[in-house]
Every structure is written in C-alpha cells, then in structure tokens.
Amino acid sequence: MIHDLVAGALARAGERNAREIERAAGLVLAAVRADALVFTGGAGHSLASVAETFYRAGGLACVYPLYHPDLLPLHSAAGSTTAERRSGLAAEVLAGRAPGPEDVVFVFSNSGVNPYPVELAEAARAAGAPVVAVTSRASVEAAPRRSHSTLPEQADVVLDTGVRPGDAAFPEDAPRTVALSSLLNVYLWNEVLAHVVTTAAQEGVEVPLWRSSNVEGGDAANAALLEHYRPRVPALR
C-alpha cells in the first residue's frame, strides 16, 4: 500500500542530497584516514538512527555513539521529550569524550530545534570537528523554536530528508501515520557509507567495517577491530 510513497521519498532524498552525500562521505573518509572517530548523536526516535550506525554488520567500526539514558523513550516517553529540550545535556554527554578536529560528528534530528541536538552540533564545531546534520529542513522551519539556533545553522553539511512537518506521511492528502524520518535517516547514512567504501577502494584505503557475528569467521574478523577501538569507544566494552 505504501510502496510507491516510500520509494518516492527515498528517490527524492537521494537526488536532493547527491552533492551533500559526497561531502559527508569525504568527511568520514578523512576521519578513517586519520584513524579518528565518527561520532553519532540524536534523541528520542532519532536514537534508532544512532543505533543503526553502531556495531552492526557492514557498519563502520570507528563510530562513537553519543548517548544518555534520559534521551531514550523506552526508559520514559515523556522524560525523553523533556531531556532533549533541556539545555546543558549535550555538554554532559560530551564531558566523557569530546570530538576533535580529525573526527566528524553526525547529528540526527527530524525537527532540529531542540537544545540537545543544536548544542551537540554547536559544541562539536567549537572543538573543531565538522558536523553533518541529518534533518528535515521543512520540519525545522515549521517547528517552534526552543533553542537560540537550529541544527542546520550549526552544521557544515546538511542531509535533508524532506520529511513533512509532523513526520507522518499517510494518507498523503491528510497524513497522520507512517512516519518516515527513521527510514530516511538510515537510507542517507547508508548512501554515505556506500560512497565512503567506493572512494576508499579507488584510493586504496581500508575502511574498518564490522562483519556479522552470525556468519562463519565473523567473530574472528571483528576481534582486531574490537581490540583497536575499545580503548576509545567505551560502548564497545
């Protein structure tokens, strides 16, 4: 029933962001060359996108997920909304390990106006790290301002999902269900990964990628990556 709706949204996102995907991939590849880290952050359901970037088959091993339990709706639905609107939480999350100039930071936020994602991006840029925002410009424009700035204003590269304000996409004439932001976030992230791997192969650069632990040789292939990144990425312990 929604095949054409979803397929159209994916196609438009790919076309709309073609140049930005290449720029984001270039930043990731630069971090890989420098043996640096790719930080990923978000709040609420955008944490699903952060989980997609971290420790999964085919994913980058050099990812540092930015997380605070208060941000996850599974712990407290209303509490997670309160947390992403709380100024200062981003500084708390970054207190343990802030990004540096050789790292790159991806911030996922559909509305892009709450203090947590905005301050996360702002702090990263202040530390010299480039920021890639994965957001919806239309949703940002329509959302009530809750911070002094917006996520796109604090980003070096903006991947625009094109999601309608409110996220719902179905029925098309009066949308009230089928939220597409998570799907489009994952799609754009994987477009970036595909570009990274393709360019790296052309340049003879090895990209650290996880193997599935449920295939023959997967655990052995991942052992060296775990040993290399565990000291810098506490979530891998």
Automatic annotation (TrEMBL):
- List residues of the SIS domain: 28-203
By its UniProt entry, which SUPFAM superfamilies does this protein fall under?
SIS domain
The record's section on InterPro entries has:
SIS_dom, SIS_dom_sf, SIS_GmhA/DiaA_subfam
What NCBIfam families does the record tag this protein with? Answer: PRK02947.1
Protein name per UniProt: SIS domain-containing protein
